[in-house]
Amino acid sequence: xxxxxxxxxxxxxxxxxxxxxxxxxxxxxxxxxxxxxxxxxxxxxxxxxxxxxxxxxxxxxxxxxxxxxxxxxxxxxxxxxxxxxxxxxxxxxxxxxxxxxxxxxxxxxxxxxxxxxxxxxxxxxxxxxxxxxxxxxxxxxxxxxxxxxxxxxxxxxxxxxxxxxxxxxxxxxxxxxxxxxxxxxxxxxxxxxxxxxxxxxxxxxxxxxxxxxxxxxxxxxxxxxxxxxxxxxxxxxxxxxxxx
Length: 244
Ligand SMILES: Cc1cc2nc3c(=O)[nH]c(=O)nc-3n(C[C@H](O)[C@H](O)[C@H](O)COP(=O)(O)OP(=O)(O)OC[C@H]3O[C@@H](n4cnc5c(N)ncnc54)[C@H](O)[C@@H]3O)c2cc1C
Ligand code: FES
Description:
It contains four helices and 16 strands. By secondary structure, the chain is mainly β.
């Protein structure tokens, strides 16, 4: 983990409520797929955790949805302004288990952490399928970006206004070697039930302290409670115990 002051070089809307922000810093290292950063937003006590969408040495891109005070404030920032960011957080996805034809399943703002993963998997010669799920056509983002990497992309919308009608679990391909997923908890539970292979889940649970002290983000596993902010956000399918 590293605390650094990063300069905003882009902050543009990609839908009515989702923004893409690019940050740059001379000491910024390449981030892990499935890793996250924790952003201090002026006047707010708790930092806001946001997944890494894309990363190269010296730059980092995030996609965030405006849902409250912190993200609203972020959306008003302009290129040239700076942010205090904790980088290099989270265990990230383990790419070594992907097999030849991994499947990526993302729902809403669970889509962003899958992009850097898709980039690295396709660069490694894997045949990647991605199913990106949204509520409605106006919320869809990422389709072209994943296609440009060479992924086989299916978009689902719950209301049938674009792509396949339904949820990501209604569009699972026949065959895949392994899966990686991120999205809201009801979606993750459905993916847990519907998938036939092993895989990894990234939890974007609401965090408290963000550094392991409050247990506010804990998830029950076969080896006891794990804190999403410290031992996560990625957990293996085989270790998760869902509470009723
Ligand atoms: C590891 C991790 C990675 C994340 N990655 C992303 C990302 O890539 N893009 C993105 O848009 N968001 C992401 N989130 C969620 C993001 O952190 C929250 O949306 C953000 O902190 C909200 O801050 P706020 O001040 O705008 O909202 P607040 O004022 O704190 O809350 C406003 C409303 O949003 C709800 N809310 C807040 N946080 C969450 C949450 N984590 N999940 C669901 N509802 C929430 C609150 O209950 C409340 O109703 C991630 C969260 C975690 C833990
Ligand atoms: S947010 Fe406090 S322990 Fe994870």
